Amino acid sequence: MSDRTSTFITVDKKAARRIRGGKTTTGDKVVGGVSHVVLIVWSVIVITPLAWTLMSSFKTSREVLASPFGLPAEWNLNNYISAWTQYNFGQMFINTVIVVGVSLVLVMVLGAMCAYVLARFALPGSRVIYYLMLAGLTFPVFLAIVPLFFVLQGMGLLNTLPGLILTYVAFALPFTVFFLFSFFKSLPYEIQEAAYVDGAGEWRTFFQVMLPMARPGLAAVAILNFLGLWNQFLLPVALNTDQGQYVLSQGMAAFASAAGYKVDFGALFAAVMITIVPVLITYIFFQRQLQGSVSQGTMK
């Protein structure tokens, strides 16, 4: 290799390194610094109330009022036990898990099927059905409370968990179809046709080929649906007035309002932690499913 060729290679390596790494300018440093400051401030704003609530859940009401930002004198689970048993948050937690869990499974299965059919098959009236689904997103929920009340009353499902599950599924289905429609639409048709050539039917193609490819989209919409259903307040308050069937969101409101000036702050903060911890755990669990892409699913 000549000296001239070696020089060219060295220059090309430096140029490539410069292109890959890029030169850090003053503007880049300013933008990076401001971004880090904003993220730090935002993290403090989000984490501080959560940490304060967690710390207060181990205090007595006297300690909360006397020293709001101090550490508890004794770290024990008395407030959690009291909230779980005395204030019936254990039953409300079970009710919430049943309602949200069953609703989430139903809405994901039905929504994925509906979005897949509307996106992949040219059926008569499919566009009309899709636009009706979109119209459901624009309809305010509080305007449907009175009709829903009488519909569930006529079906004998008012103040019952099955009635609440049915309402939750109807509430979340339009968003699920809207979210997954474009996702299924973007999947390559060649893989679907290859499945047909291999002898797979429609059900097998959907569940074993197309659905695994849509895993990132399913994980994202599952997280959003779970958050929306778990924190749902208006629907259970209007359609579920039986205290034995309460879910956590309405139980929290009832606990805080019924206590008046004699609020057991320790149990209240413990109940808040009982309400939000499942959401955090679920998000952390599904966060791994968000990694990857459709192309990674097609290579498996």
UniProtKB/TrEMBL annotation:
The chain crosses the membrane at residues 30-52, 92-118, 130-152, 164-184, 218-239, 265-286. Residues 93-286 form the ABC transmembrane type-1 domain. Pfam families: BPD_transp_1 (PF00528). Coiled coil: none annotated. It is found in: Cell membrane. Gene3D superfamilies: MetI-like (1.10.3720.10). InterPro entries: MetI-like, MetI-like_sf. SUPFAM superfamilies: MetI-like. Keywords: Cell membrane, Membrane, Transmembrane, Transmembrane helix, Transport. It is a multi-pass membrane protein. The keyword Membrane applies. The keyword ATP-binding does not apply. Signal peptide: none annotated. Belongs to the binding-protein-dependent transport system permease family. PANTHER family: ABC TRANSPORTER PERMEASE PROTEIN MG189-RELATED, ABC TRANSPORTER PERMEASE PROTEIN MG189-RELATED-RELATED. This is N-acetylglucosamine transport system permease protein. It comes from Microbacterium resistens. The lineage of its organism: Bacteria, Bacillati, Actinomycetota, Actinomycetes, Micrococcales.
